[in-house]
């Protein structure tokens, strides 16, 4: 554990979900593979592109449509619809196909195994702090067994933009107006979405260093960096 700023008394916690509370990489690999197979089976023209080419289209849309980059549901639906349109599918069928294949993706995407250690930590933290989840992704916390720990789950959609935009942080502060921004601690693995987003909104941040990102991608320093849930537990409960 490494401190970069003085940790002020914490009154509430927010958590990123994917790759912070569980390893999401194999989950996404499986979900994308199964969704691609379903896409090619239902729409044979989709097989003209490899799975990587579909991923490339998704990455291009992230770069050209900033709002999609922070909303994984909208991004995946747009990728499927735009790809089918480019491959000659009629507009209404492309829209329906995107929703159909996305439903297949979600079914596999929500097949997440959460460790007993994570369950135990969240259960203990929930007894001491208000806990909320702030996730740019589309995981269903009820489906993966984590909903009971959070009093609020905020994800992009219906005018709410994902991190690092301040929208989801604002929802939290509006829900708990008695808690000042400086008393929140946001926990996540993304230097941009979680650390930069939280610090810019005036929150304290705890960066999980064993996620998907390296230290050289930090644009601002977190309040604290940690490498395991045991370290986070020691910080907040011991």
Task: Report on this structure.
The chain is α/β, with parallel strands linked by helices. It is 46% helix and 11% strand. The chain has a 7-stranded mixed β-sheet, sandwiched between helices. Strand 5, helix 8 and strand 6 (204-208) form a beta-alpha-beta unit. The chain is elongated. The mean pLDDT is 95.
User: What structural class should be given to the helix and strand makeup?
Assistant: alpha/beta
Number of helices: 9
Sketch the major β-sheet.
7 strands, mixed
Order of helices and strands: EEHHHHHHEEHEHEEH
Overall mean pLDDT score?
95
Overall geometry = elongated
What is the helix content?
Answer: 40-55%
- Widest sheet, order of strands: 1-7-6-5-2-3-4
Terminal Cα span: 14 Å
* Poorly predicted spans: none
Proportion of strand residues: 5-15%
* Strand runs, count: 7
Quick tags:
9 helices, 238 residues, single chain, alpha/beta, 7 strands
Question: What is the strand and helix layout of this fold?
Answer:
Blueprint: E1 2-3, E2 12-15, H1 25-42, H2 51-64, H3 66-69, H4 72-86, H5 91-109, H6 116-128, E3 131-134, E4 152-154, H7 167-175, E5 184-188, H8 191-200, E6 204-208, E7 224-226, H9 229-236
Parallel strand pairs: 2-3, 2-5, 3-4, 5-6, 6-7
Antiparallel strand pairs: 1-7
